[in-house]
Specification:
With 328 residues, the chain is α+β, with helices and mostly antiparallel strands. It has eleven helices and twelve strands. Helix 2 (32-40) packs antiparallel against helix 9 and helix 8 packs across helix 9 (226-236). The longest helix is centred in the middle third of the chain and has 16 residues, at 174-189. The radius of gyration is 20 Å and the shape is globular. It is an enzyme of class 2 (transferase).
Length: 328
């Protein structure tokens, strides 16, 4: 076996990389097209890109994307749990915009990859190295624990299973179910329309400032840097589905959703609550996300992080996410 250390995702064939991602059941954030989009338009300032590829002969069997970050804390949570890493450069896998960390490939080779990652981190001046947003108890979490690395809780991500929309509704509490149905009626009466569009037909010039403004409401300033965000979403191509909610032509909500083999990711959204009528544009967007996921045959709805009260009320369950960092 041999390790390749690459500085651009373009240095490896997309089919080779994606074969490992698919075999490992990793989410959309690990697909070559997503990582390529992030390299072209990084949503978090990255001082360097590193891609580790472990090969058995010519065949890739495991991969890790990692990013050197001198300001590695866009959601402010990392330094709450690792205050000793404040102000120090870190080599992290994956990006902050991925909420489900994996090491695509065979878990038994993780020690080899960790050694290589540590050596690279030291060579490029990182003081810290490791993984963020690791789901507690998954294969990566267990392998890191077996390697003697402790984990610290960052946040939760929210998930639910899907079959049919009526089955989804039947699993909700009476009040939440009634609210979704009432919101649908009220929005329809208020002249609201919903459209699902490919990226190249979506109104990203309207959607981007709405997403930026919504993130700022939750004190996530800079999480979606304007023009960079637009370029990133455009570069995603077929990985993304855009949901536009309009009231008499005015954009009142939009969601950028991502898909992989089994999952539908409600990755980000923007909402304007200054609407005409007693309905919630976010409620419309959420319901349409569930319906569209089901129409695509996806069996898991990934609700991302944050907004725990709404997500719990609407049938999503939390998965604890940990950071696993070590000093170089």
């Amino acid at each position: 076996m041999r390790i390749e250390i690459l500085s651009s995702i373009s240095e490896i064939d997309a089919a080779d990389w994606d074969s490992v991602v698919t075999d490992g059941g990793a989410p959309v954030f690990y697909q070559h097209a997503y990582i390529s989009a992030y390299e072209q338009a990084p949503l978090t300032n990255a001082d360097g890109f590193v891609y580790l590829v472990l090969r058995d002969g010519d065949r890739p069997i495991a991969v890790i994307p990692a990013y050197l970050q001198s300001a590695a804390n866009p959601l402010r949570r990392l330094h709450e749990v690792y205050p000793e890493a404040l102000g120090q450069p870190a080599l992290l896998s994956h990006t902050w915009h991925c909420y489900d960390a994996h090491v695509p490939g065979k878990t038994e080779v993780l020690p080899t990859l960790l050694d290589a990652m540590t050596q690279v981190a030291s060579a490029i001046g990182a003081r810290w190295c490791g993984f963020v947003n690791v789901q507690r108890g998954n294969a990566l979490s267990q392998a890191l624990r077996a390697a003697g690395l402790p984990a610290r809780h960052l946040t939760d991500r929210w998930v639910t299973d899907l079959t049919t929309y009526e089955h989804y509704l039947s699993g909700l509490g009476l009040r939440a179910r009634a609210n979704l149905r009432r919101n649908e009626r009220r929005s329809r009466d208020a002249g609201v329309t919903v459209e699902v569009l490919p990226v190249d037909h979506a109104s990203l010039d309207e959607i981007t400032p709405l997403c930026v403004k919504t993130a700022s409401r939750f004190e996530n300033n800079g999480y979606y840097p304007g023009s960079t965000f637009t370029r990133f979403v455009r570069a995603l191509g077929d990985l993304a589905h855009v949901i536009e909610v309009r009231q008499r032509g005015k954009l009142v909500a939009a969601g950028i959703c991502l898909t992989d083999a089994t999952r539908f990711h409600t990755w980000t959204c923007g909402v304007d609550y200054a609407v005409d009528g007693s309905y919630s544009p976010y409620g419309v967007l959420f319901a349409e996300s569930v319906k569209h996921a089901i129409s695509l045959g996806r069996t898991t709805l990934e609700g991302g992080r944050g907004n725990a009260v709404f997500k719990k009320r609407h049938g999503l369950r939390p998965h604890p996410l940990d950071a696993v960092l070590f000093q170089v």
